[in-house]
Design a protein that fits this description.
single chain, 209 residues, 3 helices
Length: 209
């Protein structure tokens, strides 16, 4: 998985600034510093804990693909490239869409009947996203939702995401906070060229959604 993570990050670095189309921001949302110059999903921090926070996210649109259950490095890279090609104009309108962050992976836990997915956030200014032409891609919309979020730095690879997810789970359980433990989401915010102040997250859905 280390090789696969490196390949994905390298590809993102290569094409990350290639497609800029929809300018501007939505509403009064002020993106956090770790989003840099890229659009990211709108949210508010409802509560800060010592090592994690509770966020309330606004509805958002995403372009999504499934990740093969084999989950080897080449399959993961293929999923990423499908999403990237959509953003670069391989869609029903041949429309270039600005690159966004984060890249989010939805990883089901102990449920082989549910597919793992990878998604790119679509800018809020893109009110009617073009349809994908690749049959392995599909548009999705997330409703307003609350998430427990643990942030960490460094170059995140598979074992580090697993470690941080376990730490967040432990912290929630110790505090007696209910959460949905059937899946974890992983969010990556940086390109490989960023050597310091890197930002990664793991997300658990709250029981209140």
């Amino acid at each position: 998985m280390v090789a696969g993570s490196t390949l994905v990050l390298s590809l993102l670095c290569l094409y990350g600034t290639a497609a800029i189309a929809e300018a501007g921001t939505s509403g009064s949302f002020k993106a956090p510093a770790f989003c840099g110059k890229y659009k990211c999903p709108e949210y508010k921090v409802a509560m800060n804990y010592e090592t994690f926070e509770l966020r309330v996210y606004e509805p958002a649109q995403w372009i999504t693909t499934t990740v093969s259950k084999e989950k080897n490095s080449l399959e993961k890279l293929s999923s990423f490239r499908r999403l990237l090609e959509y953003m670069k104009g391989s869609n029903s309108e041949n429309k270039m869409i600005e690159m966004t962050i984060p890249t989010v992976e939805y990883v089901p836990i102990n449920n082989p009947s549910v597919n793992e997915t990878m998604s790119f956030y679509l800018p809020a200014t893109l009110t009617n996203p073009p349809q994908p032409t690749d049959p392995k891609l599909f548009l999705t919309r997330s409703n307003k939702k609350s998430l427990y979020v643990k942030s960490f730095g460094g170059f995140a690879i598979e074992h580090e995401y697993i470690k941080q997810a376990k730490l967040l789970e432990k912290e929630l359980l110790q505090r007696g906070i209910p959460f949905v433990n059937s899946a974890i989401q992983r969010a990556s915010y940086n390109y490989p060229s960023v050597r310091s102040n890197r930002h990664n997250e793991v997300w658990y859905l709250t029981k209140s959604n």
